[in-house]
Structures are given as structure tokens and as C-alpha cells.
Amino acid sequence: MNRFTLPEWVQQHLFQVHNLDSVPGDVLEQIKSRLTKFNVEEDPEVSIVIPAYNEEKNLLQTLSSLSEIRTTYRTEILVVNNNSTDRTQDLLNACGVRSIFEPRQGISFTRQTGLENARGKYILNADADSIYPVGWVDVYVNALQDPAVSCVHGNHSFIPSKESSRFGLACHELIAESMFKFRSKTRGFTNVLGFNFAFRKADGLKVGGFNTKRQRWQDGWMAMMLMQVGRIQRVTSPDARVWTSDRRLIIDGGPSQAFMKRVKKHSRNLLKYAGIKSFDDNHDTPVKA
């Protein structure tokens, strides 16, 4: 993998969508046609669950990447529409994607509703602003064949916006991944991010599902709870690397400021990562690093 460039397979899904009406009809039909393989009528083995709130401009890119996935498992896609006020639902209908409406606002409610309504044995958690590699399903489900593993996750890279560069984001990622390795020894659950992790549905329900009392860190919380039934495994295969929007970094003031905020946070937590000091799991919140 060349860290400093955007792969061609990612670029092919990054067509600009201003709104649903701006999407050429042939493009929509092609994606819809490829997505039909996920219209599993009975007993899907895998559920790809995507929360969506006002994602009319982003969701089609994600669905385009998922439509290219090659898998040996019967797989469904389930999008949970969390009170979207744009045309997110119209887009889902146009693509023939299974969806469910969640009226309670918040990502934890949305993920829990997805967990409860997913029909697959394996839950793969995705986001509506990310691009997924063709082997994403199989690399995670194969890892979960080990009964000692309860949760799997992988790396991520950022898609540069107008406010950032791929070079700067790549440097950011290299340093972040070094920190991931360091803290994985004692607090691996803090590396788990909601747009790129998987677990068995039965295990997720057994540990109580997503914590709907908190609207931040629902992904890391789930991973932490899953440690009751097995270990967390970081999958390093390229098929586990997801490309995601840098919009959260932009919200934090841009890549440079976001990086400094994370450096300060991780510096405060070094003793915790080393296992010398305990975490306050009510306040330590991982983010897309």
C-alpha cells in the first residue's frame, strides 16, 4: 500500500453527489443492480449494519463500494435511518436497500436497533461516509470463526477533503497506528471504531447490546463488554483497512489541530495504556485517530 496516494479502487467510488436528483440514472441503476446480491430472503449469515442521519450526499459512495464486495457468505445490508430530514430514505429506496427507521435520536440507539433487527449471525458495523474493500466481509467473518475471538477490527485511512492533503493525513495515520499498537496490550478496546468492527450477534446481545445511556464511545464500550466472552483481535490484512471521510478531523479544526488534540490526550493516558493507571471508562472516549 502506498500511504501517500489515494488508491484507484477508492477513487472509483468518490463521485460527487450534491443530492439524489444529481445522480445519473445509469449510475444509480448499476449500483442497484450490484446490490441485489444482498437481497437475501432467508437466513443471511452476515449483516452489514449502517446508521444513517442525513447522509444523502455520502451514502451512495458507501453503497457503491459495498456493492463491489465479493464474499462466500450470504450477506444482507441493513441501514438504520435515524430521523433523516434530507432524502436519505429516498436514496435507500432507489437502491433497493433494506432499511428501518429509528425515531430516537443518537448513534447508540441507532446501532442497538440495527443489532436487534439484523438477521445475520455476524454483525459487521459500517458508516455512511466510508469506503470498503472487496474482501472486507470475508476477512472479518473468517477471523470470527475462532470461538476465542469475540470482536475484530482493523485500520483506517482518511479520504482527503479540500481542507487536507493525503500526505498530511498519511503522516497522521502512521503515528496514530503506532499508538494503537502500544495501547492494544492493555486497552485494545479503545482502538475499536464504529465504522470498522465486527462481532457475533449472539455475543453482542449476551453482553447487553450497545449502551443506549451514552451517545459517545458506543463502539469502544461494546468492544470492552465483548471481552467478557472472548478476546479482541486487530486484523492487519489490507481487506480490513477502511477509507473514511476526514470530516471529523475538519470539525476538530483541521488535521493539524486534530492531531495536536490527540497527542495531548494520548500523552495524558500513557500510564493507562501501559497498565500502570486504571481507566475511567465513563470518560475515556476513542475517536477516529
From TrEMBL:
Instruction: Please state where this protein is localized.
Output: Cell membrane
Extract the InterPro entries matched here.
Glyco_trans_2-like, Nucleotide-diphossugar_trans
Q: Which domain of life is it from?
A: Bacteria
| Transferase as UniProt keyword | yes
Q: Which UniProt keywords apply?
A: Cell membrane, Glycosyltransferase, Membrane, Transferase
Entries under Pfam families matching the protein: Glycos_transf_2
Q: What is its main location?
A: membrane
Instruction: Tell me the protein's name.
Output: Glycosyltransferase family 2 protein
Which PANTHER family does this chain map to?
A: GLYCOSYLTRANSFERASE, GLYCOSYLTRANSFERASE 2-LIKE DOMAIN-CONTAINING PROTEIN
Name all Glycosyltransferase 2-like domain ranges.
47-201
